[in-house]
Every structure is written in C-alpha cells, then in structure tokens.
Amino acid sequence: MTTTMPSRRAPSSMLMLLLACLMALTCQAFLVASPSTPLTTTRRAARTSLAAAADGAVAVPGEVGAVESCRIKIQAALSPVELVVKSSNDDPNGSHIALRVISAAFEGKNRVQRQQVVYKAIWEELSGPIHAVDELVCRTPAEEGM
Hints:
- The chain folds into 2 domains: about 10-55, no CATH class; about 65-140, GMP Synthetase, Chain A, domain 3.
- Helix content is about 45%, strand content about 15%.
- It contains 5 helices and 3 strands.
- The protein has a 3-stranded mixed sheet.
C-alpha cells in the first residue's frame, strides 16, 4: 500500500511571477557575466537594473526608461497641470503603468476622446516596452477644482 502526501501548490500566478523573475535575473546575469567579473557582482547588477526598469528609471546609461519616456511625451503633447506616470505596483517588469493627467486640453472632450489623446501621445511605448495602462485618469483643471 502506498501513501501519497497531499501536495500544497502555490497559486499559478505567483509561481509564474517567481519563474519570470528568476529567468530574468539568470538571463541578465549570464549576458553580463565575463570571465574576469565575479558572478555575485553580475547578479547584483542584474537585480539593480531589473529594479530600475520596473521603476522606469534609466536602465542603460544614456537611455530613458519607458515610464519616463511616457512622462516626457504626455508633457509635450498635453502640457498638463498635473501629471503622474508610474509603474503599476503589481508589475515587476515595468510593462504596466498607471496615469493621472490633469490638462486643459481635455476641455470639451468626452472620456473616450480624452483617453485617445493620451494613448496617441504614448503609442510608441504601447507598441513596445509598455504592455498595458492599468489606470488612466483624464480630467480638466475645472473638474479638479484648480
């Protein structure tokens, strides 16, 4: 007679997230590693650049991160009174963002037209490093009491 122990499985989403993080760190450490560089140094560099990419910070010297690029493009297109562009909290890759845009350019536009204006400004990022906009708040200064 064989006895099997009940197995406890982690939720599949958590498991996939853990696997994706491990793969990213391993791949980046492998690509950065050289015979003269200790592996601990390359792992630390991989973790640092992965965290920087998640925050939209500069990941490669001289190159602007995706979140910062979105901020620059929305600023140029809409001249907002208030602009908040941040990486979503539950996305370690920085491919999901949350936006809050308060701009006079939204006057006379309905909700869908306002979102279209914002999406048009960041279309290049949406076609590449940014996978989704999880939250998008588009309001006029009058609606915010400014």
